[in-house]
Amino acid sequence: MSMLQDMLFNPVTVGVSVPEINIRKNDKEFQVVLAVPGYDASQLEMAWEDKVLDIKGRHEAKDNENDDNWYYLRREIKTPGFHYRVQLPEATDESSIVAELKDGLLTIRVPMLAKKTIPIKIESKNTISLAEGE
Questions:
Q1: DSSP state of 8
Q2: Which residues of 69-98 are buried (b: 16+ CB within 10 A; e: fewer)?
Q3: Distance CA 79, CA 81 (A)
Q4: Which residues contact 24 (CB under 8 A, 6 or more apart)?
Q5: Residue 16 has what pLDDT?
Q6: Is residue 10 over pLDDT 80?
């Protein structure tokens, strides 16, 4: 498996919580979809450098212990932040990345660059056969 394939299928993750992720591509687009229920756009951050897409999510701790004299007897529901890194393919147009947050899914679309074709001109040359004994 190539290094690029290894990074695509085994992305680098940092942090305690890692959202579920789908990564796919076709000839026109490279797409990353993260399951981020409970996050809003202000809690998500995305950056890229040297073909690495860096996605972070942070949750501010909401402490409702003082609301209407409630206090917790047990508190297990936590929403820690995450930090996820994905290697982009070489043929992507990073200047045109688009991200959308809808129904708890963060969808990041990165257009693929058009494949370049270089015409090759082949000149035909006369072949010379060598006769034996000359």
A1: H
A2: eeeeeeeeeebebbbbebbbeeebeeeebe
A3: 7
A4: 30, 31
A5: 52
A6: no
Its pTM stands at 0.67
Please provide the DSSP assignment of 73-87 as one string: S--------EEEEEE
| Domains located in the chain, CATH noted | 3-111 (2.60.40.790)
Taking only the tens place, the pLDDT of each residue in 35-59 is 999 899 999 999 999 999 999 999 7
Retrieve residue 130's tokens: 């060598």
Give the tokens for residue 38: 């409970």
The amino acid at residue 97 is I
By the 8 A CB rule, do 84 and 13 touch? yes
